[in-house]
Amino acid sequence: MKLSIFCGVRSAKTFQHSAQPRRFLSDRCSTASEMEFGSSLPGEQNSPDDAPLSVLNDGIKRVNGTAKEETTRSVADEKGTRGPHILMVFIPSPGHAPMFVQLLYLLRHHRNVKVTVVSGGPVLAEIVKLHERGDFNDLDMHFESLFGPPPLYTKDPKFPVQAALASAQMETEFQGVKNRLIEDKDSVGAPTSLISDHLLWWTKDTAKELGIPWYTLSTAPTWFTLYEFEIVLRRGRDLDLNDLAQKFEKVNVSGIVDGRVDDIPQRFLEFPEFYANLTHYSLRATGLLINSAFEVEGSAGSLATIIQLVDQRKKTDPGTPLEDTKVLPIGPMLQMSGFGELSKLNYEPNEALQWLDTQEPGTVLYVALVSFGDVLKDVIPQLASGLEESGVPFLWIFKGQTIEHLLPEGFRERIQGRGFIETGSTSQASILLHPATGGFLTDCSWIAMLESLCAGVPMITWPLSVEQPMNARFATDIQKVGVLVRDGPTEDYSTTVTKEDVSGAVKRLMVSEDPEVKELKRNTLELKQLLSQTAGEGGSSYVTLRNFITDLLTM
């Protein structure tokens, strides 16, 4: 197996890996998001000195001897014909990488396919790990370790990731790669298609100059995309989130009821030009890949509205590439055959799963909140005290974070036997699928919600940032598969939720006989079945995704 790693815009170097037993994701976990980006792989342990970036550095050190420029060639290249070469470009963020990795798992079943992955940091290092251990079969893979640490983080808990600034910096860093690709566009083995993170709208220029199709992949839920397409462009400059009266004004987003202006992060409105460009060019892409499905949203949902929006633009802007734009709902990107099904997995035992084995069915609350910056310093003490006060068994997972200094004094001793806290990398899917798991306290990231629904586990929603407040409303108000950690507006959930709120929500979901809770548990199981059908063979997302893959391989 050969692997090419490119660092920045320097020349390519290739190294040969020693033969290793292949272990496939379908045998180990359900989703690419379970490849805990920035932590160890399942079954491996992080040492104190282990840093994800060392994977790339070690790979470069393994380059054979001299600095000769060797490149991996596919069978198609050797025959002098142009085989499929897919260029993937995405933000080096754990929230953006999983869907791209899912596509790699689907492509691994096809021969003579070349894929170049452009990203950076620990995220790219983890994908290199997967390739080294054989997860992607014989895909001819190349990696561009390009993007340095972007100015991602802000002090705004509602929008900690600064997408506009990160995208602009990456555009600059990508310029060298773009120039090299354009210089070689007529060569055998040049890219035949480009799939980009939907925030990287400027990659459309590269696709245009290469004369290849350009697809954008949205990792966010559909209603967040509609915020970009509709709310920001039509009302953004008129909204003032410092106006308390306006904070609670309802906004009409298809598929969401009782959405409020306050659900829109302030920074979302501060860069109208960025979102105007994003919208303009996204609606002119070859295809919009969306991690959702009609079966999830219904005929009046945001997905249907985006399709209508594209159709309207086709009528008003004829004769442009827009007339060929396709909206491609391929979600949930979790359960398609080709990278493992949730119901047919074997997980390696670890302490967390062994602890779950000792608990009664449906009695354990799984807790996982992920955030940035200083948000968790306010959340952790109230969460810990609320879990303790509830009396409910819980499994609390922290991914690579140290929280000991934030826990109440004596907390671990008091919850001994009833609660289990882990800072390792236990697969989230394995926890959600365990018979002992009866609920999920989540920050409402879209991927986490889809995993919970695919496992049939109801939720306690504690949204902390970005699109999470609207995701929470979708879970509690539309699909009715969860309860809010606290009733009322989601404003400042990071600082205003109390231990009493947490305890009350936990007891309501896990031990109460509330008829509404019984109904939401039934709803969750029904939606699990629906999602399984959607993603299964013959389902709408299954067919759309397979047709998309076929298109990629025949361009």
From TrEMBL:
InterPro entries: UDP_glucos_trans. SUPFAM superfamilies: UDP-Glycosyltransferase/glycogen phosphorylase (SSF53756). CDD domains: GT1_Gtf-like (cd03784). Keywords: Transferase. The keyword Ribonucleoprotein does not apply. Signal peptide: none annotated. The keyword Transferase applies. GO terms for molecular function: transferase activity. Belongs to the UDP-glycosyltransferase family. This is Glycosyltransferase. It comes from Riccia fluitans.
